[in-house]
Amino acid sequence: MKTVLCDARAEAVLARLDEQGRQQSAEMRRYYDAKRESAKRTTDPASKHDMDFVRDKLVALDPEKCDLCYTLCRAIGARRVVEFGTSFGVSTIYLAAAVRDTVRERGGEGIVIGTEIEPRKAEIAAANIAEAGLSPFVEVRVGDARETLKNAGGPVDFLLLDSWIPLVRPVMDVMAPQLRRGAMVLCDNVEKYEREYSDYTSFVRDPKNGFRSVLLSHQGGLEISIKLG
Ligand SMILES: C[S@@+](CC[C@H](N)C(=O)[O-])C[C@H]1O[C@@H](n2cnc3c(N)ncnc32)[C@H](O)[C@@H]1O
Question: Which domains does the chain have, with CATH numbers?
Answer without folding.
Answer: 63-227 (3.40.50.150)
